[in-house]
Amino acid sequence: MKPTWIFDLDDTLHHASAAVFPHINRCMTEFIMRHLGMSEDSATELRQRYWRQYGATLKGLEQHHGIAPQTFLRDTHPMSELETLLVWQAQTAALLRRLPGRKILLSNGPQHYVEGVLRRMRIRRHFASVYGVERLDLQPKPHPRSFRTVLQREGLDPARCIMVEDSLANLKAAKRLGMRTVWISPSARRPSYVDVHVRQLGELLRLGLQ
Question: In this structure, are strands 180-184 and 161-165 parallel, antiparallel, or unpaired?
Fold first, then answer.
């Protein structure tokens, strides 16, 4: 039986930290400034604090300030601007095509952003299902409920799933649920809850995971 691969998107399938994340962060800061009447410095501090505390800035804004999720997600992830900033490895599509097993995309990003990135990269067809944060009932990783939502809806046995991520917190949560874990990172260390550590996506084909 072939495994089910559950892929993160940002900094896993494309290099979001290069330009996409900085642009989204600016959009989020400007959104907070407009809607909460804050200075740029205060808005930046609040954005970062909520991200650390909840795993997603939106969660804090919704809980403490009554911000409408759809408005926030739409305004802070403008695909017409973000798609021009994408950076990814040219061989990504070929790798996904050759990798045996079913593939699912699980991201904390909004659905329109996730779908837009996959289309721009021309890899949408390689994923059986795609989960943005709306499909997770706005409960982002690493909360266990986000993973359980996917496992239940897709009828998956976590023991047959391989989570591929750049985030250690997300991998730790996936490991607790019984998944195997692959960490994509240039780091020299490997925590105990990481089964396989690779430096780049292209190394997956050599692992022989099944």
Answer: parallel
| Alpha carbon distance 140, 159 (integer Å) | 22
d(CA 18, CA 115): 20
Place of tokens 């798609």: 83
Instruction: Take residue 116 and report the two structure tokens written for it.
Output: 């837009």
Q: How many CB atoms lie within 10 A of CB 187?
A: 12
**Per-residue b/e over 104-114, b at no fewer than 16 CB within 10 Å?**
bbbbbbbbbbb
Question: What's the pLDDT at 56?
Answer: 86
pLDDT tens across 144-202, in order?
999 999 999 999 999 999 999 999 999 999 999 999 999 999 998 999 999 999 999 98
